[in-house]
Design goal:
The chain is mainly alpha-helical and about 180 residues long. The chain is built from seven helices and three strands, in the order ααααααββαβ. Strand 2, helix 7 and strand 3 form a beta-alpha-beta unit.
């Protein structure tokens, strides 16, 4: 029983002397090699795509590479989507405009879910209010991101939501007040 000759097999046969192209054993061996080369090419293409920050994931370990490259905390317990949002926010903020700074934080926290007050409590201070509890992984990641993307001449003050029931942090039946 002969297998159909694929385009990859044809490409390999084109590099062989014509004497071998008619030999069934040569066609079979080159067919097996062509299948393996096709699988390798697919894996290389998938690897290449996973290296871009918008496609990074934990399976290919590209999230960790980007986190380390951008000096962000490595958060293996967070989902790929949350980690990718931090990476993209840090990447977007590289243009150093105030609008990009706000957009970068919006990417992670969500538009309208945080506030910033300038010159509070004094000049060159920013006070930021976030919906995260201070002891969470998200708060640590958010603080690292903001410190990374904020110009060095500004002092940062962080206010965290440590009161009431915190989704993903508080336990049912636990009174945090």
């Amino acid at each position: 029983m002969s297998h159909p000759v694929t385009q990859s097999t044809e490409n390999l046969l084109d590099n062989m002397p014509t004497l071998y192209t008619a030999a069934p054993i040569a066609v079979a061996v080159l067919g097996a090699m062509a299948e393996e080369l096709d699988r390798l090419e697919e894996a290389v293409e998938e690897y290449r795509l996973r290296q871009y920050p918008q496609n990074a994931d934990a399976e290919w370990r590209s999230l960790e590479v980007w986190e380390r490259l951008l000096r962000l905390p490595v958060l293996p317990n967070s989902g790929d989507t949350a980690r990718r949002a931090l990476i993209l926010a840090a990447w977007l903020s590289r243009d150093a405009s105030g609008r990009r700074w706000s957009e970068a934080i919006d990417v992670v926290v969500g538009f309208g879910n945080w506030t910033v007050t300038e010159n509070d409590p004094s000049a060159w201070n920013l006070t930021l209010d976030f919906p995260y509890a201070s002891a969470t992984e998200e708060a640590g990641a958010m603080q690292a991101l903001v410190e990374l993307i904020t110009p060095a001449h500004l002092d940062l003050n962080f206010n965290w939501n440590d009161t009431g029931f915190l989704v993903g942090t508080s336990l049912v039946g636990e009174d945090t007040i």
